[in-house]
Amino acid sequence: MTSGLSKSFAGRAAVSDVTFEVNDGEVYGLIGPNGAGKTTLIRLLCGLYRPSAGAGTVLGLDIERERSLIRARVGYMSQGNGLYGDLTVAENLRFYADVYGVREESRLREVMSWLDLGDVAHHVVVDLPTGLRQRAALAAALVHRPQMVVLDEPTSGVDPLARDTMWELVRSIAAQGVTALVTTHVMPEAQRCDRLALLAESRLIAAGTPEDLVETSGLTIARVDATPWAEAFARLRARWPDAALYGTRVHVPLPQGEAQEREVRGVLAGLEVYSLSWQPPGIEDAFIALVDRAASHGTA
Amino acid sequence: MPPDGSYGPTSTDPSVTRSSLPSARRRGSMRRLRAITRKEFIQLVRDRRTLALMIGMPLVLLLIFGYGVRLSVDNIGVELVGHDSPAVRAVLSEHQHFRVAPAVAPTLTAARRDLFNGSEAVAVVVDALGRPVRVLIDGSNAFVAQNSLEYLRTLMSSGTSAPVEILYNPTLRSADFMVPAEVGMIMLWVGTVATAIGVVREREQGTLEQLMMTPIGKLELMVGKILPYSVLTLLIAVMITVLGLVLFRVPMRGNPIELFLFAIPYLVAALSIGLLISTVAQNQRQAMQTATFILLPQVLLSGALFPLSAIPWGIRWVSQMLPLTYFTPISRGMFLKGLGFAQLWPEVSVLCAMALVFTVLAALLFKTRLD
Amino acid sequence: MDVVAARGLVKSFALQPALRGVNLAVPSGELCGVVGADGAGKTTLLRCVAGLYRPDAGTVAPGRAGRADVGFCPQGFHLYPDLTVDENVDFFGAAYGLDVATRAARRDELLDFAGLVGHRARLAGHLSGGMQQKLTLVCSVLHRPSILLLDEPTTGVDPLSRRQFWRLIEELHVAGTTILLASSYFDEVERCEHVVFLHEGRVLSDGGVDELTERGASLEDAFRASLSGVGT
Question: Does B206 contact A78 at a Cβ distance shorter than 8 Å?
Answer without folding.
Answer: yes
